[in-house]
Amino acid sequence: MAKKPKTTIDEHGQTRDRRGEWRSGRPVYLEPLLNDPLNVKGIAKWLFGFPGFFAPWFAIYMLVIGISYAFFTPSLDRMGSLSADWILEIIARNVILLTLWNGVFHLWFYRWRKQGRQKKYNANWMSKNNPTFLFKDQVWDNMFWSYCGALFWSAYECGLWWAYANDWLPYIDFSSNPVWFCLAMALVPFWRNFHFYCIHRLIHWKPLYDRVHYLHHKNVNVGPWSGMAMHPVEHLLYFSCVLIHVVVPSHPLHMMFNAFQTGLGPAVSHSGFDEIVFGDEKSVRNDRYMHYLHHRYHNVNFGESNVPLDKWFGSLHDGSPESDLHFREVHKKRVQGQQVDAS
């Protein structure tokens, strides 16, 4: 009997392994800001190129936040006292925004399948008739837990708005300190990713993993709604990144950027696709392979690409066959109870 081939070619000419996985051939991309030695030219290209730090995603978040702040956020004088009317407005705004944002990605990639499986890491579509998930449907399960997350997002945001309105938080605005105002906005993603790495390592501690984080990891083949499909305890920890504004001087726009990127970013990082493809020639690089590998292997890539903590602490899987071999050996040693060199 002939052996099953190790690889197949799909309808887009992509090479897939026997599990149906596709890899771009590029290693996991780490932003060059913290590289040693410092590469000034590479940093400039990353900051101002396309795709880069400021475009497209930073600019898109800024646009969403600006519109939300100007048109869909209650006035500060209303938020000086805790009142159901403005709190419900914040909740409704965040739920609608989450629905629109995640919905666009889900419709494009999974409902309408506008690019088929082109640049899709896992060949399979979202799971149906699967008792692992609520309602036996992965998408509906993920949506339920994501909307639970929107409540935690809103609760943190409302608490901070209330504190800003009562002058209880250290405050700056553009006119009083334009340099720090702009720098703080640019630093928010780095803080958020540092915080994410820390709490992510925490919830991979076995007692928390078995009771809390397991829920998120039911999603091996991820989709846009998978990103916020978390246990409520994980939501509580995940959105706590906004508490930095209790101690660091900031403007409500900084807090909104922090909260919105935390709430909306998972749809991008869990899209399951390497690129958003428009027609035959145009595409936007997504480069979320790093986090896809975390869902694939569980004990690698706990952080994100602009704060290289995985590289520093030996948990970076760069997608190469060499990394596959290394982490298989690490896993084997752990199972056997041997001392592991994570470098």
Automatic annotation (TrEMBL):
Subcellular location: Membrane
Gene Ontology annotations of biological process type: lipid biosynthetic process
Entry annotated with the keyword Transmembrane helix: yes
Bilayer-crossing regions: 46-71, 91-110, 144-165, 177-194
Keywords: Membrane, Transmembrane, Transmembrane helix
GO MF term list: iron ion binding; oxidoreductase activity
Highest taxon, organism lineage: Bacteria
GO cellular component: a single term: membrane
Domain Fatty acid hydroxylase residues, every copy: 186-315
Name listed for the protein in its UniProt record: Fatty acid hydroxylase domain-containing protein
Species in which this protein is naturally found: Granulosicoccus antarcticus IMCC3135
Top-level taxonomy: Bacteria, Pseudomonadati, Pseudomonadota, Gammaproteobacteria, Chromatiales
